[in-house]
Automatic annotation (TrEMBL):
Residues making up the signal peptide according to the UniProt record: 1-24
Pfam families membership: OmpW (PF03922)
Record keywords: Signal
Protein name: OmpW family outer membrane protein
One Gene Ontology biological process: transmembrane transport
InterPro entries: OMP/PagP_B-barrel (IPR011250), OMPW (IPR005618)
Top-level taxon of the source organism: Bacteria
Record PANTHER family: OUTER MEMBRANE PROTEIN W, PTHR36920
Length: 264
């Protein structure tokens, strides 16, 4: 069910396609309504950010600052576009990224208990997935008869973070001290803009190749919790230490896709 919900931005325009006749009547449009479906690969490059983590538990009133620098990865994309009139299109897109890992974690846990200090933890400490959904209004400056169709667009974006977890080496380090930890990230609403080009195979061909650069504004909350590995009594607070901080993800995404045009 969770996976199905992720595809809701894709299913919506497909439903719109089958109801295009009613939409055309409602908007006062005449003639066939054009649609484009594009599917392909995506190269995702997130931002490096200095994150200030603060002590959520107020036990030690501690805070620290560390670099979060996820590596780049490849994913896949799909988008559906409706062109009700010449020069303008409405696009809903979905980009499914692969797992990010990385970050200089020096001082990531400067204080967990009064006796245990993780000031020398370095390297990749966590992994996470990021999926980006977008809704954009696009402008095509050239006539529809041109075989090369550049465009620009902008709109809103939604970024969902999942599969958040510490890497195995750090989990092992915590286990040596009888501890376990959690690493969680939230979601983000933001804006997006893009620029791209459709290369049509021919004036009468329905097939095209697309290249596009997409930027999405994405700021999310990172939360780190450290727990006793042995479950405590019911009336005892299990958290030893908890930190949170705002991370600016802000990915650049570069699409290479194959598209198909059709009309109703």
């Amino acid at each position: 069910m969770k996976r199905l919900l992720k595809f809701s931005p894709i299913l919506a325009p497909l439903a719109l396609a089958f109801s295009s006749t009613a939409s055309a009547d409602f908007l006062g449009l005449t003639g066939p309504q054009d649609f484009i479906v594009r599917v392909g690969g995506t190269y995702m490059s997130p931002r490096q950010d200095q994150v200030s983590f603060v002590d959520d538990s107020f036990q030690f009133f501690d805070s620290f600052r560390t670099t979060v620098d996820p590596d780049t990865n490849w994913g896949w994309n799909i988008n559906v576009e409706w062109k009700p009139i010449e020069h303008f299109g409405i696009e809903l897109g979905y980009i499914d990224g692969d797992t990010h890992s990385g970050g200089n974690a020096d001082g990531y846990f400067p204080l967990i208990t009064e006796d245990i200090v993780f000031g020398d933890v370095t390297g990749d400490i966590a992994r996470f997935d990021a999926d980006v959904s977008t809704a954009s209004l696009k402008f095509y400056p050239l006539d529809d008869t041109c075989m090369v169709q550049p465009y620009v667009g902008g709109g809103i974006s939604y970024t969902d973070f999942s599969a958040n977890r510490f890497r195995g080496s750090l989990r092992d380090d915590l286990a040596e001290f009888g501890l376990r930890g959690t690493f969680d990230m939230g979601y983000s609403w933001g804006y997006t803009w893009q620029a791209g080009i459709d290369f049509n195979f021919g004036r009468d061909s329905s097939w095209l190749v697309n290249v596009a650069a997409i930027y999405a504004r994405s700021v999310t909350d990172m939360r780190i919790g450290i727990f006793d590995d042995v479950p405590p009594p019911v009336d005892v607070e299990p958290v030893i230490e908890s930190y949170s901080g705002d991370y600016i993800y802000d990915p650049w995404m570069f699409n290479l896709s194959v598209g198909y045009k059709f009309s109703f």
